[in-house]
């Protein structure tokens, strides 16, 4: 059965019978995510000077091996930002080809669907061949310069999709619980409680950033940006409950603006943490770092611990974003298709995707597999691969510090750079703009029908 999974159309599963049953659609997405994680780890290793030095020290005949595989005298062609660009080029091409291959698949019984859901060993070999083949592209300098701009465009688009889906999530959350309030007053209480918690978090974050990231002298960037972003949160909150918006969108309220405010505060904190440190001379003519919390300077002394933990959390979040962005509801939300208020069913876990598709269970000596796509596909195959294609570009740009690629190292992953700072800050403003547009669009275009 495991051979059928690797070289045939069978769904992958674990060998242990005691494992809980798994759906075919989940198994497929898990395997693609596993490939994504594998290549991401390889990219992190390639950007690590610590790993490179350890390999030189502990691998016998390291120099001869590097010359044998034509990777340079000390394998310099297999490390650094250029190597990451090439590996991510192979991974991006892999997902983009599958995006083209799976367009308009609505039936899991078609030949293309079988290829999408199986042949995992063959696909792993193809992925490895693509990543390796990128190292043999002629005219490397032209390729790297052009691919950098493609990567930046894809990375920005990945961020934009996540922001759009965040706004959609906020609206869907409010609409779901508001629909429940029509039947049970409990939902009104939950709405009020959660809204209060969200705004409490946002206000607390604003106050803490003002305390730890500013000082009476200097820190002008921090003061202006904290004030501007706090003002934007207040502005969108007032717009959300204004009478003109309420007349056109009765479901608009403080819950959505609370979600957006918390996310804006998170991005503001993340941006301020990513800003290059400011230094001034003290009375003894020594350089001291200002505009950052004093305890954070101590944390950055153990660079390996901070980098390892932080990188794991970051790429875990990227993977989570990929998987949650590829549901049928998310792909339809990007097209402007939403559930109507009449079809909303109130639930604390309203994001769970329940399917009424007929399930066929097969037991073949290992983990039980539920074939949940007999009647039709549970998610959009093409959109799934497109999101992972963009995520590949986002990982490439993130690991190589975006536009500060020449000095990038994974050990200095959390060292502040202006490019990362402005990317996060602009993302913050784009998020506010997208949410504000969903509020004022029905007023600007009264003849059009908007549904959020």
From TrEMBL:
Q: Name one GO cellular component term.
A: plasma membrane
InterPro entries recorded: TDE1/TMS
- Provide the catalytic activity annotation: a 1,2-diacyl-sn-glycero-3-phosphocholine(in) = a 1,2-diacyl-sn-glycero-3-phosphocholine(out); a 1,2-diacyl-sn-glycero-3-phosphoethanolamine(in) = a 1,2-diacyl-sn-glycero-3-phosphoethanolamine(out); a 1,2-diacyl-sn-glycero-3-phospho-L-serine(in) = a 1,2-diacyl-sn-glycero-3-phospho-L-serine(out)
Q: Where in the cell is it found?
A: Cell membrane
What is the official name of this protein in its record? Serine incorporator 5
Q: Does the record's keyword annotation contain Transmembrane helix?
A: yes
In which broad location class does this protein mainly occur, judging by the first location in its UniProt entry?
membrane
Domain of life, per UniProt, equals Eukaryota
The GO annotation for biological process reads: defense response to virus; innate immune response; phospholipid biosynthetic process
Q: Where are the transmembrane segments?
A: 30-52, 83-103, 115-137, 149-169, 190-214, 220-241, 253-272, 305-323, 381-403, 423-445
What is the membrane topology here? Multi-pass membrane protein
Name the family the entry cites: Belongs to the TDE1 family.
User: Which key words are in the record?
Assistant: Antiviral defense, Cell membrane, Glycoprotein, Immunity, Innate immunity, Lipid biosynthesis, Lipid metabolism, Membrane, Phospholipid biosynthesis, Phospholipid metabolism, Transmembrane, Transmembrane helix
């Amino acid at each position: 059965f495991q051979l059928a999974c690797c070289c045939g159309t069978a769904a992958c599963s674990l060998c242990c019978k005691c494992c809980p049953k798994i759906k075919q659609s989940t198994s497929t997405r898990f395997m693609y995510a596993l490939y994504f994680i594998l290549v991401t780890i390889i990219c992190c290793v390639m950007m690590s000077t610590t790993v490179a030095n350890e390999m030189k020290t502990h691998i016998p005949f390291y120099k001869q091996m590097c010359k044998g595989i034509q990777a340079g005298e000390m394998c310099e062609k297999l490390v650094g930002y250029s190597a990451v660009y090439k590996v991510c080029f192979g991974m991006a091409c892999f997902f983009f080809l599958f995006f083209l291959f799976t367009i308009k698949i609505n039936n899991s019984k078609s030949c293309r669907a079988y290829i999408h859901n199986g042949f995992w060993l063959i696909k792993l070999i193809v992925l490895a061949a693509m990543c390796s083949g990128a190292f043999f592209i002629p005219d490397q300098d032209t390729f790297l310069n052009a691919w950098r701009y493609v990567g930046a465009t894809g990375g920005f688009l990945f961020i934009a999709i996540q922001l759009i889906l965040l706004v959609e999530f906020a609206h869907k959350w409010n609409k779901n619980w508001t629909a429940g309030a029509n039947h049970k007053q409990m939902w009104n209480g939950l709405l009020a409680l959660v809204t209060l918690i969200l705004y409490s978090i946002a206000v607390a974050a604003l106050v803490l950033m003002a305390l730890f990231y500013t000082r009476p002298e200097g820190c002008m960037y921090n003061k202006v940006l904290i004030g501007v972003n706090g003002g934007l949160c207040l502005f969108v909150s007032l717009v959300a409950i204004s009478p003109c918006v309420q007349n056109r969108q009765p479901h608009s309220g403080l819950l959505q603006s609370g979600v957006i405010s918390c996310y804006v505060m998170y991005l503001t904190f993340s941006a301020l943490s990513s800003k290059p440190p400011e230094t001034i001379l003290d009375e003894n003519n020594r350089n001291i770092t200002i505009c950052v919390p004093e305890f954070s300077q101590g944390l950055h002394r153990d660079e390996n611990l901070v980098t390892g933990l932080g990188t794991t959390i970051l790429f875990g979040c990227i993977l989570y974003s990929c998987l949650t962005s590829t549901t049928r509801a998310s792909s339809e939300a990007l097209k402007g298709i939403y559930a109507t208020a009449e079809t909303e069913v109130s639930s604390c876990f309203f994001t769970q995707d329940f399917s009424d598709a007929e399930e066929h269970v097969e037991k073949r000596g290992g983990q039980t597999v539920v074939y949940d796509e007999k009647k039709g596909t549970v998610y959009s195959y093409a959109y799934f691969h497109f999101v992972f294609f963009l995520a590949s570009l986002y990982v490439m740009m993130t690991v190589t510090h975006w536009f500060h690629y020449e000095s990038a190292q994974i050990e200095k992953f959390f060292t502040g750079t202006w490019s990362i700072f402005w990317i996060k800050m602009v993302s913050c403003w784009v998020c506010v703009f997208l949410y504000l547009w969903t509020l004022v669009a029905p007023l600007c275009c009264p003849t059009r029908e908007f549904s959020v």
